[in-house]
Design brief:
172 residues, 7 helices, mainly alpha
Length: 172
């Protein structure tokens, strides 16, 4: 048989598209003495199939396999008490901790009038002090904003430089 025909049959064989007649032709070819040296690995496989062809499973194989499967499944039916109890204990501990924390941090219901005390007798003076405090806060925030803007502009410049450098490296 021509080695090219055998190679085509082997391709069909490995793709599981060969017919029984084609597989029989392959077996005949690999049983002969005139085999292409490039197909020696395939010959070993077909020799292996021929040597193991006479092996058969006995009648008790199915029963033995089923017994092994049943034996493996039996331990799964055992109910283990310790993992179950540990889960319940964990939930109980969590609930106890949550209740304890809730009790520790519970805020008493008081009106805001009781919490804050009026420190100024004159409402106009209180207004002026509040206005001064808010202006001071505004100035401080504006300073911080200017510093932040300077930092962001530096970051944007640096980012542009990095992008330009990386695009130059990519082009090379």
């Amino acid at each position: 048989m021509v080695p090219n025909d055998i190679k085509k049959l082997l391709e069909k064989y490995w793709l599981t598209e060969s017919t029984l007649e084609e597989e029989a032709r392959l077996k005949q070819y690999f049983e002969s003495d005139q085999i292409d040296p490039s197909l020696m690995e395939d010959k070993q496989l077909f020799d292996y199939f021929k040597a193991d062809q006479h092996l058969q499973l006995d009648d008790s194989f199915d029963e033995n396999l089923l017994n092994e499967i049943i034996a493996l499944k039996e331990p799964a039916k055992n109910f283990r008490l310790l993992p179950f109890i540990s889960r319940i204990a964990a939930v109980g501990l969590f609930l106890f901790g949550a209740g304890f924390l809730y009790q520790q941090f519970e805020v008493e219901d008081t009106s805001t009038a009781d919490l804050y005390e009026d420190t100024y007798e004159d409402p106009a003076l209180a207004y002026e002090e509040a206005k001064t405090a808010i202006l001071l806060l505004s100035k401080t925030l504006n300073k911080s904003k200017k510093t932040l803007d300077k930092g962001l502009s530096k970051i944007h410049k640096t980012t542009k430089i990095i992008k330009n450098q990386s695009s130059k490296i990519d082009l090379e």
